[in-house]
Write a structure and sequence with these properties.
With 334 residues, this protein is an alpha+beta fold. The chain has helices at 3-21, 80-105, 109-142, 147-176, 180-205, and strands at residues 36-42, 46-50, 55-59, 67-68, 73-77, 208-210, 215-220, 227-228, 233-239, 244-250, 262-267, 274-287, 301-309, 321-326. It contains 5 helices and 14 strands.
Length: 334
């Protein structure tokens, strides 16, 4: 091999090395080929768990780092104070039910019979007073009886009429029973008592705190024995599935991607490549977030993408920076 051939081979090798390092002097950049590289982070998705009622924490059977499923019991409150309210509500329901039953049943047979006897007695008194009135009326004008005696007779007659009318009214009420308005009021009182009982029952069930989703306990902010207010965070759960990646695409590359495209997700220090799908592209532009590290940081306008990871595992963690490759991205300029 002569010297000229050797120099030519060395020059060719150097050109190949430079071409690889510079991606074909820029001609093989992802924006000019099919692949497109994006940058982002695994979304941090957390839910703060809290009781809907206040009270003293009795138990907390799970620790930080524990994996939980939706519905797992996380903590309980001392149920005694609310259990007392439930008992009082039960008594109120029973009292309202009894009042309604009484209104619907009307008067007892004995009460109706008693009212009839009073009518009979009042009728007899009225008959006797009417006889005295009829007998003594002619004697007044002749002076056979005094005016005072006549006035007393009239008063007894009027009182007997009033007593008879009262007894007849009492009998009528006893036979007819409660008014429709009273029955409606009794029904409303019973409905209110039942609603208050349901509310007390809900509060009692709320003394148990259950996981709202599958995930991992990341923080445990309180301990048994502590008093907690309604809505105060007791534990925080990091939601594991579905795992989402938040990435950004520059404005010139926006036309190269669309929802439904398949992507490859890689994270530093993990040899495995994950597969995902572009699920959402924001319709609004924003400036490049500082947390997104690209090969050349800049403040160009970008659009946010949401990528759903199809095959996540425990090695891929929330907040982790990732690189996304879109193998089927449209060619630049299309």
């Amino acid at each position: 091999m002569n010297r000229r051939t050797l120099i030519l081979l060395i020059a060719t090798g150097l050109l190949l090395i430079i071409a690889v390092l510079t991606r074909g002097f820029g001609l093989l950049d992802g924006r000019n080929g099919e692949d497109l590289a994006l940058y982002g982070n695994v979304d941090i998705r957390e839910v703060d768990m809290a009781f809907r009622v206040s009270g003293r924490i009795a138990t907390m059977p799970v620790e930080e780092g524990a994996k939980v499923s939706k519905g797992t019991l996380l903590a309980t409150l001392d149920p005694a104070p609310i259990a007392d309210k439930v008992a009082a509500a039960d008594a109120a329901v029973a009292r309202a039910q009894a009042a309604l039953d009484k209104a619907l049943d009307g008067s007892r047979k004995q009460e109706v019979e008693q009212a009839r006897q009073k009518v009979a007695a009042a009728t007899a008194l009225r008959k006797k007073a009417a006889e005295d009135y009829a007998r003594r009326q002619p004697l007044v004008d002749s002076g056979a009886i005094s005016r005072a005696a006549w006035d007393g007779t009239k008063a007894q007659f009027d009182a007997a009429n009033a007593q008879l009318a009262e007894a007849q009214a009492v009998l009528s009420l006893a036979e007819e029973g409660a008014r429709k308005e009273d029955i409606s009021a009794a029904r409303a009182a019973l409905a209110q008592a039942k609603a208050e009982r349901a509310s007390a029952g809900t509060s009692l069930s709320d003394t148990k705190l259950h996981a709202a989703a599958d995930g991992t306990i990341t923080t445990r902010t309180m301990e048994p024995g502590a008093m907690t207010a309604a809505g105060q965070t007791v534990m925080t759960i990091a939601i594991a599935r579905p795992m989402r990646v938040r990435a950004y695409v520059t404005e010139p590359d926006l036309g190269r991607v669309s929802p439904g495209m398949k992507v490859i997700v890689k994270a530093d220090g993990i040899t495995k490549s994950y597969h995902g799908t572009i699920g959402y592209i924001s319709p609004r532009a924003e400036f490049t977030p500082k947390s997104v590290e690209t090969e050349s940081l800049r403040t160009d306008l970008v659009y946010r993408l949401r990528i759903i990871v199809d095959d996540p595992d425990d090695a891929l963690r929330q907040g982790q920076p990732v690189t996304i490759t879109v193998p089927d991205a449209r060619p630049a300029g299309n």
